[in-house]
């Protein structure tokens, strides 16, 4: 169960004792307990379908949006199905559009037929729980809370969040990276990479014009911060009295060794995130083109172990860049420079 809001952020909120923050502190505690409960009953990953089950080209999306009506019962009541028009519920319509934008990126740019590459139906539940401060992929569908209204707004508001969570599904069906330590940080980073690519492709936004923020617009105006994370400048996304300062490192020089957050999966993901940004910045143009192809090719290469380290991942991106574009190409050199920048040995 992979959620967008890191547990260390929820713990900061849960520890607040000011009267004005009592409701959000309670909501954060409940979200933390919920994450723990879901991870305890996590089922075995679903294996990828055999090549024979795949179509020659991607089919159309198959979306269904459900409404939990402030309960924690999934999937909830159907409110919008594929091909139906907007229903007037902002969260439901944002979820529908975000699922479509994610499907479009994978289909049009990577030739992938939905999350599992065999046309998996895209289901999402909105209005989950009361003041629920998170969004998550539970192994089969997306789930969105409405936020507490003081720290977080509704979680369907950010396309990068929707793309991020669905990318956990893609990783589940491909490399199946373990959700712990460096492999877990790579799992989170792959979701950040494809989350920003969904947003940039939707906006047709060049790498040089993009914000490179994950969860931009989620915070209310009471928070001193722009987003949950910054791929361009890890460690700078927020600096707030309640949330604290963004703890992400941007190189191995400041790698965080911790047992919390499954070994720092949301923290140390800043390092490979920065590497992807450097590749896109060096090459210019659109990040979903050469940089995206290299990262997608690496994820689907079949050569990443479940307990993949940053070093192994870096070597595989270099090999993928060489395979796609040739040794000594601008793309190959940009990947080498990126890993050198973040102090990961190739």
Written description of the protein model:
This protein is an alpha+beta fold and 346 residues long. The protein has ten helices and ten strands. It has helices at residues 7-14, 22-40, 90-110, 159-173, 181-203, 261-264, 270-283, 290-299, 310-325, 330-341; strands at residues 2-3, 63-67, 77-81, 122-126, 135-137, 142-144, 213-214, 229-230, 239-240, 244-245. The strands form three sheets. A six-stranded mixed sheet has the order 1-5-6-4-2-3, covered by helices on one side. The longest helix has 23 residues, at 181-203.
For the structure shown, list the relevant keywords.
346 residues, two-stranded antiparallel ribbon, alpha+beta, 6-stranded mixed sheet, 9% strand, 10 helices
